[in-house]
Specification:
The chain is an alpha/beta fold. Helix content is 41%, strand content 15%. It has a 5-stranded parallel beta sheet, with helices on both faces. A 3-stranded parallel beta sheet has the order 2-1-3, with helices on both faces. The chain is globular and about 50 Å long. Bound molecules: NADP nicotinamide-adenine-dinucleotide phosphate.
């Protein structure tokens, strides 16, 4: 029987559902007061099965929030020039407020060239160098969805993060680096660990907030967790158990970590659902900025 106290679990699924509901309310206000409906274009190249599922879910949730969803599915052999032409068209289309090109892309296309081509004002993934630069320098840009979702969960659980020690394991441009910048912005003392870190367990043990964004099943063990720490597990790993059945596990050995952690996100049902909710949040933010409209719900909604 699972004896985990429910109070330790950070329920990202419930938080994301509530966030999506609030976004839908704000979209309705925007439409009523300004006649504006946010539009999100999602571009999928090829037939990667996981990407197809993500894109379908994104489209469904965009519409559920009352936004327009534009899907562009291109064949796997699409050339880079054709994709860049589509991005240019979407950049110029006033009905499109957010553009997301689903990664990974087929190998004939350089993902950086595509990210660079997206108008930073419509870059709802927050991957464009202008948005990365704004995040690094404390400006108002669009923030990558997964770390933004992690920060929302942390602030909801802990309130003010000032002075807390945070360790982020992973330094990707998509998760680790923007997560570290966000935590620094909240006045945490931040350590970024990676594959060359000398004593990873010791760096983790120092942390009041531990973020694992690695992509290695259950790498973070229970004795890496400081008593009472808040643990955010970003990892999504397909793992084959002894019974031959595949299941999803995080980067943290949950059963061990939950014994020591004060609070922890499960996998699935933790960070994952926050990513799409934050994509919708970014689309709403981008729309308001493009139109010079105050965000319905005020600064609290950013
Ligand atoms: N929940 C979501 O919505 C969501 C969204 C995005 C990603 N994810 C998941 O989050 C995980 C990380 O994603 P990502 O895109 O950031 O991955 P990534 O680009 O592969 O980066 C992984 C990072 O982990 C570090 N690393 C790898 N092995 C390590 C080790 N043994 N010890 C310490 N650090 C190690 C790497 O260090 P180096 O830089 O030194 O190589 C790298 O910085 C994946 O499981 C991914 O599926 C989930």
């Amino acid at each position: 029987m699972d004896r985990t106290p429910a109070s330790k679990i950070i329920d990202g699924k419930a938080f994301a559902a509530e966030l999506c509901r609030r976004i839908a309310d704000r979209v309705a206000v925007l439409r009523q007061a300004h006649g504006v409906t946010p539009g999100l274009a999602v571009v999928l190249v090829g037939e990667n099965q996981a990407s197809q599922v993500y894109v379908r879910n994104k489209g469904r949730q965009t519409e559920a929030a009352g936004m327009n969803s534009f899907k562009h599915a291109l064949p796997a052999e699409t050339g880079q020039a054709d994709l860049l032409r589509l991005v240019a068209r979407l950049n110029a289309d006033p009905a499109v407020n957010g553009i997301l090109v689903q990664l990974p892309l087929p190998k004939q296309i350089d993902p950086q060239a595509v990210i660079d081509a997206i108008d930073p004002a419509k870059d709802v993934d927050g991957f464009h160098v202008v948005n990365a630069g704004r995040l690094a320098t404390g400006g108002a840009g669009l923030v990558p969805c997964t770390p933004l979702g992690c920060l929302m969960l942390l602030k909801d659980r802990l309130g003010d993060l000032t002075g807390l020690r945070a360790t982020v394991i992973g330094r990707s441009n998509i998760v680790g680096k923007p997560m570290a910048a966000l935590l620094l912005g909240e006045n945490c003392t931040v350590t970024v660990a990676h594959s060359r870190t000398r004593d990873l367990a010791a760096e983790a043990r120092r942390a009041d907030i531990l973020i694992a964004a690695v992509g290695r099943p259950e790498m973070v063990r229970g004795d890496w967790i400081r008593d009472g720490a808040t643990v955010i597990d970003v990892g999504i790993n397909r793992f084959e158990g002894g019974d031959g059945k595949a299941r999803l596990v995080g980067d943290v050995a949950f059963a061990e970590a939950v014994e020591r952690a004060g609070a922890i996100t499960p996998v699935p049902g933790g960070v994952g659902p926050m990513t799409i909710a934050c994509l919708l949040q970014n689309t709403l933010t981008a729309t308001c900025r493009q139109r010079g409209i105050d965000l319905p719900g005020g600064a609290e909604a950013t």
